[in-house]
Write a structure and sequence with these properties.
Residues 43-52 have a biased composition (Basic and acidic residues). Residues 24-53 are annotated as: Disordered. InterPro entries: BON_dom (IPR007055), Lipoprotein_DolP (IPR051686). Keywords: Signal. This protein is of the alpha+beta class. It has one domain: 2-Layer Sandwich (Histidine-containing Protein, Chain: A), CATH 3.30.1340. Helix content is 48%, strand content 19%. The chain contains four helices and three strands. The chain has helices at residues 2-21, 36-46, 52-65, 91-103, and strands at residues 74-79, 82-89, 109-117. Strands 1-2-3 form a three-stranded mixed beta sheet. The chain is globular. It starts with a helix and ends with a strand.
């Protein structure tokens, strides 16, 4: 009986982990910054459809407004909400670009298609 309880607890934990990984969970107004990207992704999926050209323009505009990324050469494309980026930049700049891209309306997922890291 103890093994059955352990197995059920393990399956419950896996189920919760899968839900969070897919963007599930609570998205209350008092969410912390760690859950902000999940909330934004949830809102993007439930909100009005955003075109790929609008997504790309929004991300490029966010990059232009950011001190760290304003002069970076980053190529951005979007296909059905999946954003693909490539560029030559520092690790810190790459992380910032990933965060800004994830926060854009309509973004489902962000990937680096090609990245060439340069020293800080």
């Amino acid at each position: 009986m103890h093994k059955l309880s352990l197995i059920l607890a393990f399956l419950a934990a896996l189920t919760l982990t899968a839900c969070v990984g897919l963007g599930g969970g609570s998205s209350s107004d008092t969410s912390t910054s760690a859950s902000t990207s999940t909330s934004l992704s949830d809102n993007a999926r439930r909100g009005p459809k955003v075109s790929d050209s609008e997504i790309t323009a929004s991300i490029k505009d966010a990059f232009k407004q950011d001190d760290l990324l304003s002069n970076a050469s980053i190529t951005v494309t979007s296909d059905q909400g999946v954003v693909s980026m490539s560029g030559r930049l520092t690790a810190r700049a790459a992380n910032r670009a990933m965060s800004l891209a994830r926060a854009a309306p309509g973004v489902y997922r962000v990937v680096w298609s090609s990245i060439d890291y340069i020293p800080e």
